[in-house]
Structures are given as C-alpha cells and as structure tokens.
Design brief:
117 residues; alpha+beta; four-stranded antiparallel β-sheet
C-alpha cells in the first residue's frame, strides 16, 4: 500500500500542494500589520476579474522608513504555463504603493518562488 501512495505523490505532486490563498485569506493574515485602508490599496492594485491566488508573502520594512512594507507572490488563473508574479508594495505617505513587480517561472509548484523581506 505504501508503494502506491508514493507513486501517486510522485506522479501528481501538484495535487498534494495545489492550494494558494484568496485575497480575503491573505488580508486576514496581514491585518495585524496594516490598517484596512492599506489592505484595500493592495486589493485595488490586483485585477478585479479573472481570478488569482496568493502563494507566498512577507511583511517587513524594506524601505527603512520605519513603516511596514509587504511583498507577495500571485498566480493569475489567466497566465498560461508555470508563471508566478512577485509584487513589492511600500508604505509611501500612508498608502501602499507598488514599487516593484517581477515575473518568474516555476518548475513544479508556485511555492518555489518565495518572497522574504
């Protein structure tokens, strides 16, 4: 029996790890760092249609101004192939503004592209 389970995990690795987060789940995780208005800035910067999942995130002060900034990775359902995008948002004068975005390819699962502040 163990042999069959191992084969299934090997043949279908994305089935065992195929779960990102919705924006609402992400918002709940970052609420301890950001006011709801700042979280709304993030949501409005992402597409309202088409769907996406957030796979990784980190909060820290990468601008060195004493306020939290955030980086996260997003997989759009509309992207063909194994593509994930990483975004960096900085607190600039009380608004979270996009300061960088990157597009990466992954091999097996989107968690391979992580963000660390």
């Amino acid at each position: 029996m163990k042999r069959i389970i191992l084969i299934l995990i090997f043949l279908f690795p994305t089935l065992t790890f195929s779960q990102g987060m919705t924006f609402d789940q992400f918002a709940n995780k970052i609420q301890k760092y950001f006011d709801n208005k700042l979280i709304a800035d993030l949501e409005s910067a992402l597409p309202q249609e088409g769907g996406y999942q957030i796979w990784g995130w980190d909060v820290g002060d990468f601008t060195g101004d004493g306020y939290y900034d955030v980086a996260f990775s997003v997989r759009y359902k509309s992207d063909k192939g194994k593509i994930i995008r990483a975004f960096m948002f900085a607190d600039i004068e009380g608004y979270l503004k996009e300061v960088a975005s990157f597009k990466y390819e992954f091999f097996e699962i989107p968690l391979e592209i992580g963000v660390v502040v």
